[in-house]
Design a protein that fits this description.
Structural class: mainly alpha
Helix content: 55-70%
Distance between the termini: 30 Å
Radius of gyration: 12 Å
Shape: elongated
Strand content: 5-15%
Order of helices and strands: HHEEH
Strand order of the largest sheet: 1-2
Largest sheet: 2 strands, antiparallel
C-alpha cells in the first residue's frame, strides 16, 4: 500500500481525521489526479471492470470535506 492509499484508508476508517490538513491535502491531491486523468476509480479489464477502491473512497471523502 502506498502512502496516499494508506492515508485515504485511515481517513475512511476514521472520518475525524478529515479535520487534519494532512488528510485533507491527500484527498485533494487524489481528486486533482483524477481530474487530470492520472488516476481512475475504475478501469476496463477483460470483460469487466477493476475498481480502484482507495480512489473511490477518496472521491467519496472529498464530498465530506467540501463546505
Amino acid at each position: 500500500m502506498t502512502k496516499p492509499e494508506k492515508i485515504i484508508q485511515e481517513a475512511w476508517e476514521n472520518r475525524g481525521l478529515l479535520k487534519n490538513e494532512t488528510y485533507i491535502d491527500a484527498v485533494k491531491k487524489v481528486i486533482k489526479k483524477v481530474d487530470e486523468g492520472k488516476l481512475r476509480a475504475a478501469m476496463p479489464v477483460g470483460d469487466g471492470w477493476e475498481v480502484n477502491e482507495w480512489v473511490k473512497k477518496a472521491i467519496l471523502l472529498y464530498f465530506a470535506i467540501q463546505q
